[in-house]
Amino acid sequence: MRNYLAVLNRELKSYFSSPIAYVVIAMFLIIAGIFYYLIVTNFVQYCMQADMQAQYYRMAPRNMNVNMMAIRPILHNLSLFYIFFLPLITMRLFAEEKKSGTIELLLTSPITNSQTILGKFSAAALLSLIMLLFTALNVLLLFFYGKPEIGPILTGYLGLFLLGLSYIAFGVFFSTITDNQIIAAAITYMFILFFWAIGWISGAVNPAVGKVLANFSLIEHFDDFAKGVLDTKHVVFYLSFITAGLFLSYVSIESAKWRGR
Amino acid sequence: MIDVRQVTRFYGRVMAVDNISFQVDKGEILGFLGPNAAGKTTTMRILTTYMPATSGTVKVAGYDVQDQSMQVRKRIGYLPENPPLYMEMRVADYLDFVAKIKGVDPRDRKKAVAEVMDKVGIQTVSGRVIKTLSKGYKQRVGLAQALVHNPDVLILDEPTIGLDPKQIIEVRQLIKSLAGTHTIILSTHILPEVSMTCERVVIINKGRVVAEDTPDNLTRKLAGNQRLYLEVGGPVEDVRRALAQLPGVVKTTVLTNDKTAGFQVESQSDSEIRPLLAKTVIDRGWQLFEMKPEGMSLEDVFLQLTTKEEVGNS
Q1: Sheet of B153-157: strands edge to edge?
Q2: Which of B73, B86, B103 is opposite residue A108, by nearest beta carbon?
Q3: Which residue among A250, B23, B46, B253 is buried most deeply as judged by most CB within 10 Å?
């Protein structure tokens, strides 16, 4: 436990003592802010139109659901570009250590590979959580002007976080297989695109195959979270994805010593 | 303390270490000598549990590096060829982190870090970011990293590389001062370093141990031939021929071609030919200006051992 915390602590400090964390968070928030603005102004315009229509036809104004018409699109939008920032925070985790030789320190210290991997994974997870929490400020702002339900927001963020962790786990794995950060990031991007595209393909192929493919699409599993549905099926899916990524990282590091790194 | 038995390591099909065996006693400093790509680093990496041997057993402090690697790791300090430094960290933070993962008791950690910084002389830079340090200081931080948990065994891969002469002397003194309480293996290219710091030398070449002894014994025993330098006034070619004909002389080399010529005479080490040489020169009516023994240096031994192989193979 102490070793795990030591690694976690060091990784977190290293994120914030280099520009990485600041750049990633800032870029992410700029994009998140733009989409938030567009979606919310759109929603407000739509509400005004509806009000005017109601006045014109002398009807009671329709009740607009802010959860469904603003927050859910915001969460969906976030889920798309949030994951594209993750390779930037996972690429260095092992690749950098391999390049600089500090991996020799870790692998000759009384600390197990699981502790190292979990420590690094948790550091990246915490950074991604910080990114998400900043965007939550935007959503909270809606509480001042409307009456959104808190439930779907919470499940939505839980879904986003789990989705992120799945990609972080595999980002860690791709970082163990190379000493080049660019390559680690590039492979992670390919991986993300692949599991994204799988959702589109599923519509174009034979329905039986399509159903299987759709189940593998990480984004499909996020839909229910955004709707406010907390289904164990999806949680289990993400957790198994995370376990798979971490397990592969472990195997990769263990086997590297036989191959001669 | 360290027991290496019949260790072999392959990288794919390439054999890096071929059936190496050697022992190191507690408190001893062992020099590990060999040309590039001889297998020094590979052997050290096996010792430090960084990578496993393909076959053979290695025991450090009684623990097997393969089966009880965590026990071994607690007891070794390792300075790889490139010091494993996190460039963005501050020196004191970095050493604190290393102390943590090396399992230093949390209550002693602060003291351990302060002591080791004092020992290698880096207190003045303790608050600096490692990236901004000079190569010499980085090397010392690397050394501090290996020492911070006060390990029984120290494994140092070329510890004086990149240091200036004054620092080299300091580091050597530091290493010598650690002997007795620590068991040290040190690899190097620099031969005087071995004769100065090590009590015993293992020379390896092409993955095999080619010699193992004290530096003095190695030079004496493996030199095989005794070498003399002579300066004689006389016709060069005649002198050379006369010297070469003497019993016990193996090789005569002319070094200069002036009136007074220098000759290098190699003879078997068991025969004392100096009186005979002097007599021959004087009897022929030539002048003997100088005669001095030329000891074969560790460099010569090293070259002889590591190049002989090549001749034998081709």
Answers
A1: B76-79, B153-157, B183-188, B29-33, B200-205, B208-213
A2: B73
A3: B46
